[in-house]
Design brief:
The protein is an alpha+beta fold. Helix content is 19%, strand content 28%. It has helices at residues 47-61, 80-89, 99-102, 161-164; strands at 24-26, 29-32, 35-38, 73-74, 77-78, 107-109, 119-122, 133-139, 142-148, 152-157, 167-172. Strands 6-11-7-8-9-10 form a six-stranded antiparallel sheet. It has a three-stranded antiparallel sheet with strand order 1-2-3, with no helix packed on it.
Length: 174
């Protein structure tokens, strides 16, 4: 909004997961670079946590284009849970090796609370497991993951129907 009120004009849009720096607070509204946002839509991040999460997300991006290998957990080839566990291992964190197992790591976060560095977990099809796929949230409604043998490590949007219908949870590791 252009001012700290719902009566003020809309000047821009922010999407869930966007990270912005606040410049002040007035009457239940945060001042941000492009205007004001109601405090009811803001989740305050621990700066140290947010910085490490972003470092982890940035580190993961170097593997964009790496090949997919079932059971792989190194830059020579990753499967989805091998990718997330490898990235986190470089920062001193140990994740369970399977998608379902990674549901037990960290603390749960909803899709609207995701921050860079969180893992995002999905279940598709009729598998007898709690989860079938995992990736690493990088911000702006996107995540990086070892997808398939055809495309390898790619970036996808959480808003793609394939992922919104299968989302079972996010986990905050740091």
């Amino acid at each position: 909004r252009s001012g700290p009120s719902t009566d003020s004009d809309k000047v821009d849009k922010l999407y869930t997961g966007n990270v912005v720096e606040t410049q002040g607070f007035q009457d239940g509204w945060y001042k941000i670079e492009s205007g004001y946002i109601s405090a009811e839509y803001v989740v305050q991040a621990d700066p140290a946590q947010a910085t490490l999460g972003q470092e982890i997300a940035d580190y993961a991006l170097q593997f964009l284009g790496c090949r997919y290998v079932y059971g792989g957990s190194s830059p020579k080839g990753f499967d989805c849970s091998g990718f997330t566990s490898y990235v986190y291992r470089q920062f001193g964190y140990s994740l369970n090796r399977t998608c379902s197992g990674q549901l037990d790591n960290g603390t749960p976060v909803s899709m609207s609370e995701l921050q860079p560095g969180d893992i995002v977990i999905f279940k598709k099809g009729n598998a007898n497991t709690r989860a079938t796929h995992v990736g690493l949230y990088i911000g702006n409604n996107q995540f990086i993951h070892a997808s398939t043998a055809k495309v390898g490590v790619i970036i996808s949007k959480l808003s793609d129907a394939y992922y919104t219908t299968g989302f079972v949870g996010g986990r905050r590791i740091v």
